[in-house]
Amino acid sequence: MKKHPRFLSLFLFIGVFIFVIVPFVPLIFTSLSFGWRWPDVVPQAWSLRAWEYVVNDGRTWQAVGISLSIALIVTAINIALAIPAANALMRYPVRGKWLFEAIIFSPIIIPPFISVMGIHLTFLRLGLTETVLGVVLAHIAPTLPYMFRALMISYQTLSTDWEDQARMLGAGAMPRFFHVVLPHLAPGIVAGASLSVLISLSQYLITFIIGAGQVVTLPILLFPFISGGDPGVASAYSLLYAAIAILTLIVMDAALRRYYQRNKATKEQAKGVKP
Amino acid sequence: MKIYPITAFSIVALALSACSSEGASEAPNTDSLLTDDWDLIQEAAQGQEVNLYMWGGNDNINNYLDEWVAPRMKEQHGIELTRVPMNDAQDIINQLLDEKTAGKTNGSMDIVWINGENFKAAKDNGLLWGDFTGQLPNFNDYVDAEAPEISEDFGEPVEGLEAPWGKAQFVFVHDEDRHETPPRSIAELAGWVQEHPGQFTYPAPPDFTGSAFVRHVLYETTGGHEQYAQPAAEIEDLEQRLEPMWQYLNSIEPYLWREGETYPESLAKQDQLFASGEIGMTMSYDPALAASEVLKGRFPESTRTYLLDEGTLANTHFLSIPFNASDKAGALVAINELMSPAAQTAKLSPENWGDMTALDFEKLSPEDQQAMNEVDLGEATLSIEELEQNRLPELSSDYIDIIEKGWTEHVAKE
C-alpha cells in the first residue's frame, strides 16, 4: 500500500477524533457524574451509581449474552441465504432479476415497523412470539440486504473462469467452493457480517414486539432509561453497548486476518514442498 | 434433491402447528380463582412464575422490585417474580390487543401496571381478567374501596378489575436558592414568567405531565373543575368554555424558555433542563421524585416541591391481571403482597421509590402507622397531610383527548 501523505493522515486523525472519540466524552462524564450542572465543563463530583446499577443487575449480562447469540445466529443464517442468492443473481441470466433484487433490498426502504406489525399476528398464531427463534427470524429481514449487497459485489469481481480452471484440474463442487470461491468472498462475508451483527444488535422495536418482553436484549433494557430520563444509567448502558459492538467487530476482523495468514502460510508451505 | 426443501418445510410447519395447538389446550380454567378461598389460592400460587410488566426507566423503582419485593415473594410464597421492563404502558395494551386478536390463551403477562387512558382502553377491549380485588385480604383490610380515587380511575369505574398500588399527586419543583418565592397559582405564574423570562416551560402535551399542567390552567382560568364532572359531549359550549385557557397559554408563551418557540417534548427533557440549570422550575406527577433526584445528585440540594393554593391533580395507579395471564393465582398473591403495609412502607421511602401508599392510613394498625410516619421523605418532599388536603380530581379521558388535540391547534401552531 502507498504511504499516505502526512497531512492527509493528520486530517483523518482529526476527523476520527472529532466524530468518533469526542461524542463518547460526555457519555463517560454523564455516566460517572454526581450533579453535573451548567456552567461546569467537567463534573465537580463523581458517583458510580449508574455503573453499579448496570454492572450489578444480573439481567445486564444475560441481555449481553442473548443479544450476541441472536446477532451471531442471524448472521450465520444470512450467510447461508445470501451466498446462493448472490451466486444465482450475479452469475446466471435470471429473468426478472431486478424484481428479486428489489424484494431482497425492500427491508431497507420499507420501515421495519410496518412489516413487523403483520408478522406479529402470524407469529402469535404460530407460537413464535416470546421466543429467541421468533426474534431471530424477525431480525433476518432488516439485516439480509446488507449481507446480500456485500456478497453481490464480491461475486461481481469473481470470474467463473477460476472455477472452470479448477474443474479442469479435477476439483469437485465442494473443493471448488471452499478453495476457489470462499477465499475470494471472505472479505465480503466479513463486511456483510459486521453490518449484520451491528444492525441485529441495535434492533429495539422488532425485538420488543416479537420478543414481547420475554427476550430481553440490551436495547430492551436501555430504551426505558433514555425515554424515562435517567441520563446516568442510559449513558452507562450506551457505553456498554458500544464496547460490545466494537469488541465484536475487532474479533471478526482478527478472525479474517488469521484466516488470510493461515492461507498464506499453507500456500507457502505447498510451494516449498514442490520441487 | 427437489423433494428436500419441501420435506424440510413441512416438518417445520408441522412442528409449529404442534406448538400452537399445544398452547391452546394448556390454558386451564382459572375463573374459579375469583371465588375460591384465599388459602386455596395461596396453595395454587406456590412455585408459579409471575411476570410483572411495567415501565422500566427508573433504577430506584427497578431496584425496589428486584431487590426488595422479589426475594420476599420467593421466601414467603414460593413465587418467582420477574419484572419485565417496558418503555410505555401503551405497549402493554397493544401487545394484549394483538394477543386477543390471535386468540392467545397462555399469555406471559401476569400482572400489568396501568392507569388512566390505558386502563380505559384495556377495559373497553375486554383485555382484563375480572373483578378480583375482593379476593385480596390486604385490599379488604386496608383499602377504602368507597373513596373516589380508588373506585374510579380517571373517571372510569374500576369495578374490581385493578387493585390500587400507589398514589401520585402533581407538584411543582423549584430551586429554593434561585427563586425564593415561586408562584402559587396559575394567575401568579403569569406575572412570574414576565419577571423571569425564559425560566419556565412545560412539556408539550400529550406528554402526561405537560398535559396535567394544562389541566391546572383549565381549572383555574375557567372557574373550577366541578363543571367538568359530566361527559364532554354533554357540554354544548365547551369550545367557548375552553377559550380562556388557550388565551392564557398563548399570553405566557413569549416569556417561556426559548420564547415559547418550542416546548420540551417530554418531562424527561424538561427535568434535564432543570437539572442543568437552564430553567428554574419543573413539575412532576410523583411528589417524591425531586427528593430521589436530589439523592442521586441530579437535582441541587436546595430543590423543593410545592402545591398550588387551590390544590393540584391527584390520581392512583393500579395493578391488574390480563385476561390471558398464565399464572393468575400467583398474580393474586403477588398483588396482595405488593399491597401489604410492609411493602407499601418500603415503597414510600425515597431511597426505594418514594411513592405514596394506596392504603387508607386510618385502617392501618398503630405499629404500621408509626412505621409509615417514620419514613424520611427527604426535605424536598411535602408531608402526606399537606398533599392529601390539597387534592383535585382528574378529568375523564374524553376531556383529556379534546385538550391535547386543542393544545396543538390553539397553542403550538399559533
From TrEMBL, chain A:
It comes from Planococcus maitriensis. This is ABC transporter permease. It is found in: Cell inner membrane; Cell membrane. Keywords: Cell inner membrane, Cell membrane, Membrane, Transmembrane, Transmembrane helix, Transport. Pfam families: BPD_transp_1. Residues 64-252 form the ABC transmembrane type-1 domain. InterPro entries: MetI-like, MetI-like_sf. It is a multi-pass membrane protein.
Automatic annotation (TrEMBL), chain B:
It comes from the Bacteria. Gene3D superfamilies: Periplasmic binding protein-like II (3.40.190.10). Pfam families: SBP_bac_8 (PF13416). Residues 1-24 form the signal peptide. InterPro entries: SBP, YnjB. Keywords: Signal. This is ABC transporter substrate-binding protein. It comes from Planococcus maitriensis.
